[in-house]
Each structure stands twice: as structure tokens, then as C-alpha cells.
Amino acid sequence: MRSNLIHQEYQIYKSYPKNMRILLMTNLLYALVLPILELFVGAYILRQTSNTSYVVIYQLAVYTGIPFTFLINGFLLRYIKIARLYSLGMIMSGVAMTVMMILPELKLAGIALVGLTMGTSYGFFWCNRDFLAISSTNDSNRNYYFSLETVFYTITFIIMPALAGLFISLGELRGWFPPRFAYITLTCAVFVLTVIASVMVHQGNFKNPKRERFVFFKFRPEWYKMLWLGSFKGIAQAAIFFYPILLILTFVGNEGSLGGIVAVSSLLTTALLYFIGRFSKPEHRIYVYGAGLLLYLLGGTFNTIFFSAAGVLLYQMCSSLARPLLDAAYFPIQMNVIDKLSEIEKRGKFAYIFNHEFGLYFGRLVGCMVFLVTAYVFSPEAALRYSLLIIAVIQVLSIPIAKNLIKLMRKIDM
Prior knowledge:
84% of the residues lie in helices and 0% in strands. The chain is an all-alpha fold. It has a single domain (14-202, 219-413), classed as Growth Hormone, Chain: A (Up-down Bundle), CATH 1.20.1250.20.
């Protein structure tokens, strides 16, 4: 019975276009790398400097590198195949980790340099990934695509943080090797995985965007609503990336605790996400989106009320459920808007992907500044306790924008 169900699901997967399947497999391989990049680079900075603000400054540098790489990528796409630029982004993440490992001492300038390099790698990866996703899917199969992709990311956030955290903490506890050696070993693993993912993406038949203008400053009113929605998402991204590192290492323990807690909380989301992708329809996206935001608000409330190891566990459980729900709903909304407006305004879809990144960037800056300003005016402890709740409350305000945007897209269909 179980084997028949697995076979049936596999046949459904095989029924989708080849490029869509190649892209999913490439992203699955790179998903093995992302937990290390998102969790343990920040943990390494905190271990080496004992300064929470340096972790946030690193994230600011990452976020600054992304949109400007989108701009550079747009011009490079006129001369270089998109699969190669996509590969470049994945491999550069290993380069960024290597730069950090060879620095004899982590100072502000070095942290900013590594952050910009990592931001460049993310820029090449996400810019080309977004275009390949929108060109390889359509509105009828995007719920499935993004939910399955998010399932991949969720599973790897179960396996990789647990393994990496255990590797670092056990080596130190047993005296087998120092933590820095463990981080260097993880960097080598990142390189190997990114090379394999780079080979995989070249198995597809992906086409570059047309050679046309992609920098615009005026759009239809619907697009500005999309930019506002992107800004709200950017605020959440800022919090989701670095707060778990700071909270877990502050209240719970070492990298082993960080990996274990992230792994257990990610396990809760996997089956839920797959069923959302298989059975939800475009009209259900607003409910999935709203559920993600309310879960994140609940997690921020738990953290503020308890502000302890128990609060961290409850927050991380809510956050791990919220993040994939938000992604599974947000990306199909975004790409449906791009599909519609690119036809109406007679512009290439890459123009909207590029412009959208600046909406995200604005939100990420706001999310980081909420922490830095609160830490400066009050204390780092106050920032850890109250910033998440502030960000979560701001996030809930985006539900009416998302609902209105979906409604406007339906009107265009009519």
C-alpha cells in the first residue's frame, strides 16, 4: 500500500515538464548547503567575536550585496548562459565561507567583506533561480512546485543542522578537533555540494531572458502593492535568518543545540507542506499566507513573554512552521502578478524580478535596523526580547495587501 502511494506520487512528479524537475533537483542539492550558510556562518561570527551586533551587521552586508548583484546579473545575462550564472552563485557561497575561515581575526571590515561576498553569491543564485522558476512553471502547477521545493528545504533543515551541529559540538566536547577545524570541514562540504548542484542545473534546457531593457522606474499601481508586500516579506526574512542563531546560542547552548532545535522544529512542517502543495489551489494562497503570519506572531509573543530557553523553543517551532507557509504562498502570488503585468505593460519578466528585489532589500534593512536601534537605545537583551514581537506585528499588516493584490489579479483575468 505504502509503495503504491510512493509510486503514485513519483508518477505525478514525473508528469511535470523536464526543466521544472531539473530545477527542483538542483535546488534540492543546494538546499543541503543553505542551512550551513544561514545558521552556522552567523554562529561562527558569534563564537569568534561574542558580539551579537556583528551577526546583524554581517546580515546587512549580505542584504546589500544581493540587489546590486541582481543589476550586474541582468547585464551579464546578455552574454552568458543563465545556467552558468546560476552555478556561479552557488559556488561563490563556498568562496565566501572560505574567505571567512582564512581570516586570522574577525573584525568589522572582514565581516562586512564576507557578507558582501555572500550577498553576491545569493544575488546570482536567487536572481537566476527566480527567473528559471517563473519560466519553467505556470500558475496551475506553482503551488506544487513551491511547496515541493519548500519541503526539500525543510527536510534539509532537519538533517543538515543536526549533523553539522553534532559534528562541531562533539568534536569540541570529546577533544577530537577544535571548532575551527570543524567549520573548515563544513566549508569543504559546501564546495563539493555546490559543484554537484552546478553540474545538475546544466542538464536542463534553460533559456536566457530576452535582451531588452530591464530597469524601469514607473509601473502600474498593482506592482507598487507587490513591492509593499515584498518589503513586508523582507522584514520577516531579516528576523528569520539571524534571530534563531542569537536566541539559541544565548539561552540554550552551543552549535549542537542550534542544529538540534532547528532540526526538530523543521520536522513539524514537512508533511503539512507537501499536502498543501498537492491539494491547495490558487484561491487558498491567502489562507496559507495568513496562517504563516499568525504563527510567526504567536512565536514572537512566546519569546517576549517567556524570554528563556522555553520561549526560544516555542518561538523556533512557530517560526519553522511559519517560514515555509509564507514562502509556499508568497512566491506563487508574486509570479502570478509578474505574469499578468508583464503582458499588460509589454515588458520582460526579468524587469519585475529585478525591481522586486529592492522591495525585499528595503524590508530587510528595516528588520535589521529594528534590532540594532533597540540594542543601541536599550540593550542587546531588550532587542532579542522585543524586536521579534515588533516585527511580527508589522508583518500581520501585510495580510490586507496580499488579499487585495490577489483580488486585483482575478479582475485582470476577467
